[in-house]
Structures are given as structure tokens and as C-alpha cells.
Amino acid sequence: TGRCTAGVGVGFALMIAPVYSAEISSPSSRGLLTSLPELCISFGILLGYVSNYFFGKLTLRLGWRMMLGVAAIPSFALAFGVLKMPESPRWLVLQGRLSDARKVLSLVSNTEEEAESRFRDIKVAAGIDANCIQDVVKPPSNSRGQGVWKELLLRPTPTVRWILIAAIGIHFFEHATGIEAVILYSPRIFKKAGVKGKDKLLLATVGVGLTKTTFILAATFLLDKVGRRRLLLISTGGMVVALTALGFGLTMVERTGEKLLWALSLCIASTYIFVAFFSIGLAPVTWVYSAEIFPLKLRAQGVGIGVAVNRVMNATVSISFISIYKAITIGGSFFMFAGIAVVAWWFFFFLLPETKGRSLEEIETLFTRKTKPKKKGLEIQPRSNAKT
Predict the structure, then answer these.
(1) Helix, strand or coil for residue 98?
(2) Nearest to 183 by CA among 214, 207, 157, 153
(3) pTM
(4) Rounded distance, CA 171 to CA 283, Å?
(5) Residue of 168, 131, 176 lying closest to 302 (CA atoms)
(6) Which of 22, 83, 213, 246 gives 270 a disulfide partner, CB atoms 3.0 to 4.6 angstroms apart?
(7) Domains held by the chain: number
């Protein structure tokens, strides 16, 4: 019951946090701010690993209860912190509360000129006259989500269909490439590789959490400089190499049945390299990208679909990993994840345009341009005697 109750809260947070961060951020810092939820999740995982290491030294009767119960402390802090957060200006505009939206934009924009420009763009995206100066107007007809599911799933335009495929794909591949197998079962991987002893296994796991947090922190500063697409391709390419090396190392350990120092070192290094590459690109970009590509009226529901796919894949990999590695060996399972990562790289290369530095209202045009049919009959036939 406790897990299910906590799961409802986690589900809300996973959808709302990146959407809210994207909607209050200016284009120049949206990558940094929208990746903060993922950074904080990784920091929380790291704190969990560290606290578990120390709680593991307590008696069994007390230790596991402390491991679970301590999570209530940040939950209370979050509950009180939310009370001080301003409402999303885009949501306020959809409710017709233009004056309140303008005040929030003044708080979260770098300059008054930027606040005014963002305010005009949001009004246009919501279907309100850009020059409207009223404090309160009648909410647009789609302000409460009427017809949104129809536009998303039943009769999507080519642009919306491409956006939806991109969002579902990036959430699918975030977990289908095996991060759950590494994070949840890293002690088992290290044990297979030859690391013995409870303390050594827990310390190796703490190293995974520390690597994840460090590289996501680096990614938050790179997203608005390097760009989402480039980080994503570098990240996925590195994951392919690391997963292949990990699969090879674990296969050699299993096949020989001996303690091979080089294979042990390769397994440990590959695990950390995989987590590093995942954390510097795919982990934060998934949440930033999916939160910023949907049009205003479809954003909440579109991101909701992406998060649902994300959670389903999270659970699928977590539940099935042991069965998979027993069926095809633990090394074979990571070769499988490497193959999926190759497919992911091609998906990102062909279907995900760069969104760095663009306003949320401009991003839709990136997906619109390539879906427009080419005009026929406009080609100019060169004359045979034309001069250059």
C-alpha cells in the first residue's frame, strides 16, 4: 500500500516537474532548468546508496525500516516548498488570467523585454490576440483539454504525429537500453564479475550513483551550449561501446569459470562508463526534449503519454532482466541492450531535430517544415544557352 501510494506521487512528479520547468524557463536556460529534476533524482539515488551503506550496518530488524522510512524527510520538504512556487504562466493564459501570467513572466524572465516577448508568443499560441491588454479574458475553447486526445491519438496532423513519435521513442529508449539493469542489479553484475563481500558490493554501487550524479550535473551546463541532439548522439554512441564491452567481459568471466583480472576490470570500468555516457545525454535530454516539443494545448497530455511509456519500460526491464539473463546469459543480455542502443542512435539521428535556444512556441515549426508537401511546378528549367 505504501509503495502504491508513493508511486502515485512519483507519477505526478515525473510528469509535472519537467513540464513546469520548461514552461517557466527562458529559452537560454531551459535546458539547465528542465534537467534539474533528473539531476535531483540522481542525487536522491546517490543519497539512497550512501544511506543504505550505513543503515546496512544496523540490525536487520531496524536497518531495512530506516532505509525505507528516511525517504519521508525530503517528501515533507517538497510539500512545503511547492507552496512557494508560482503557477505556470502558460497555464494561466489558458485560463484567461492574463494579468497573473504577466506578473509571473516578470519574475522568471531575464529582462522585461524578454517577458513581454514571451507573453505575446504565449497569447498567440493559446489563440488570444497578441495585442490584448485586458487583465482577464474568456478562456480559449481548448483550455480544459477538450479534443486533445483526439488531436493526439485519433486524428493527429503530420506535425503532431512526428512529435508524438519522437516523445514516445526517446522515453522508450531511455529504459530499453538497459539503465535499470545496471542501476538496480549492479551488485549482481559486480558479483558476477568477481567482487565479493557485502561492503565491497555496496561501495561499488555507491560509485555507480556518484558517477550518475556527477555526469548529469555536467550535462545540465552543456545542454544549452552543446545542444540536445549532439549530446544525445554522443551519449548513445558511448553507451553502445560500453554495453558491448560489458557483455564481452561478463561472457568471458562466465565461460572460463576463472577469476580473470582483466575481465573483472573491464566489467567494472564498462559499468561506470555506461552510466557516465547515459547520464551526460540520454538521461537529462529525455525529460528536457519531451517537455519542450509539444504544442501548448497538447503539452500536458503529450508528456503524460511519454511518462507512461517511460514507467512501463522501467518496470518491464526491472522485472524481466533476471529472466532474460538466465535465458541468454548475463553477457548476452548486455549484447542485446547494445543492439537496442544502436537502433536508438539511428532513431535520434533521423527523427529528433535540435531545439536549443528556441522558444517553446518556435519549436513546433521544426517539426512542421519537413512535413509540408513539396510544391510542384515551380522548378525553373534552365535554357540550353544560359550563361552562368
Answers:
(1) helix
(2) 207
(3) 0.82
(4) 10
(5) 168
(6) 246
(7) 1
